[in-house]
Amino acid sequence: MAYEIPVTQARAELADLINRVVYGAERVVVTRHGKPLVALVSAADLERLEKLDAVGDDRVISSVSVPRETASAPRERQRFGITAERRGPGAS
Question: Phi and psi at residue 90, in whole multiples of 5°?
Answer without folding.
Answer: 85, -5
